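Researcher: Let's do a round of design. I'm pasting the structure tokens now; please hold your answer until I've finished.
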């Protein structure tokens, strides 16, 4: 009954990379609490405060394809090391700034720096793992992310009782520590990593340098994914406002909902992806979108922490199916020599989520009410699911 038994055989480099991701994510507490910090600590209206998340999303959109291309040219490890170290240093600046325009500008800069990590990391995973293990590999990476996220927001929920600036300090320290670990890690395995990557590329013989914008299967997949991404990123904007501000739940309860999400992922994501590993991508992707739609749609009935937890359970199952399958699909349809670029474009979809999600969500919540917002989320998720059923298995 070992839920992680299907991780056997994954390369040592992947485990070490996942350890770095775990350390970094264990300090993730700024973004989940940014809206609460701005509205409660600095007394900024919700719709105005959402501009900070929009700035973060725009930074991610602009960075992702550039960072992916740079990773293809100079090496993904250099991009990841630089991102972690500079991200940590940038976070230390937040407690000293009270001007809202300056906070928005710094959030934009922080996003550009921190979001460069994502496409480089996904590119490395795609290169060192054979296609038959891609879903498990990305599930392991997500396991590291979510184990860290079980610590970060939960701790952050308690830190705010003492001082909001502590969120930025602790997050910054963990980014620096993760950067140092990554520098030491790649110093020892760089040669083995390069050899394995090159031999894998030759073995697979899939290096067809088709640009992302000309890959119809890839572009259609992104268009199908974006509606669900808009829904999912309500978690870091309107969900926080709805639960903490409107339903009067404590910040600690909000943080512990992340912990519940991570506990489920820790024990079930690997087995679930082992089961779905043989499914056609269109089925696993569509099912993931449906469950995310149902989970956020169920927020219309939330009245206490128990019903909030039920909503989290539903969309967590969707998340566990959708996101590993999405990363694996992009790896399958992307040529080896452009994998960083493809992963960068893929990461842009998350930037759209953090940019347009708060705009869509806060405007609907403030102007039309929570019921309209969560019904809209249900509709968008089902739209994605219908579109996913028509994707091609490969380019």
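Researcher: That's everything. Go ahead.
Model: Designed sequence:
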């Amino acid at each position: 009954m070992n839920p992680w038994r299907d991780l056997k055989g994954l390369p040592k480099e992947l485990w070490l990379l996942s350890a770095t991701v775990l350390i970094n994510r264990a300090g993730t507490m700024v973004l989940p609490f940014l809206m609460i910090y701005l509205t409660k600590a600095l007394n900024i209206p919700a719709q105005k405060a959402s501009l900070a998340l929009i700035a973060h999303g725009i930074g991610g959109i602009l960075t992702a394809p550039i960072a992916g291309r740079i990773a293809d040219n100079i090496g993904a490890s250099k991009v990841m090391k630089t991102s972690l170290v500079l991200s940590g240093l940038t976070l230390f600046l937040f407690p000293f700034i009270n001007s809202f325009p300056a906070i928005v500008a710094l959030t934009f800069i922080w996003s550009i720096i921190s979001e460069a990590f994502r496409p480089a990391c996904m590119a490395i995973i795609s290169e060192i793992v054979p296609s038959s293990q891609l879903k498990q590999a990305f599930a392991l990476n997500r396991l590291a992310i979510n184990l860290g996220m079980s610590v970060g927001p939960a701790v952050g929920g308690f830190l705010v009782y003492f001082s909001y600036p502590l969120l930025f300090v602790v997050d910054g320290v963990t980014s620096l520590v993760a950067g140092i670990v990554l520098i030491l890690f790649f110093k020892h395995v760089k040669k083995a990593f390069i050899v394995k990557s090159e031999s894998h590329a030759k073995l697979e013989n899939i290096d067809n340098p088709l640009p992302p914008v000309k890959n119809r299967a890839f572009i259609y997949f992104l268009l199908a994914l974006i509606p669900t991404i808009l829904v999912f990123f309500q978690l870091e904007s309107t969900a926080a406002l709805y639960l903490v501000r409107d339903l009067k739940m404590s910040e600690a309860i909000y943080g512990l909902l992340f912990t519940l999400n991570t506990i489920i992922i820790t024990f079930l994501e690997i087995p679930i992806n082992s089961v779905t590993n043989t499914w056609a991508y269109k089925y696993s992707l569509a099912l993931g979108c449906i469950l995310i739609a149902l989970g956020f749609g169920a927020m219309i009935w939330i009245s206490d922490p128990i019903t909030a937890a039920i909503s989290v359970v539903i969309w967590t199952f969707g998340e566990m199916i959708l996101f590993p399958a999405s990363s694996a699909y992009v790896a399958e349809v992307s040529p080896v020599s452009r994998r960083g670029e493809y992963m960068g474009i893929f990461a842009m979809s998350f930037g759209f989520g953090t940019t347009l999600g708060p705009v869509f969500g806060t405007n609907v919540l403030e102007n039309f009410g929570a019921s309209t917002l969560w019904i809209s989320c249900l509709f968008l998720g089902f739209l994605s699911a219908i579109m996913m059923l028509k994707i091609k298995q490969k380019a």
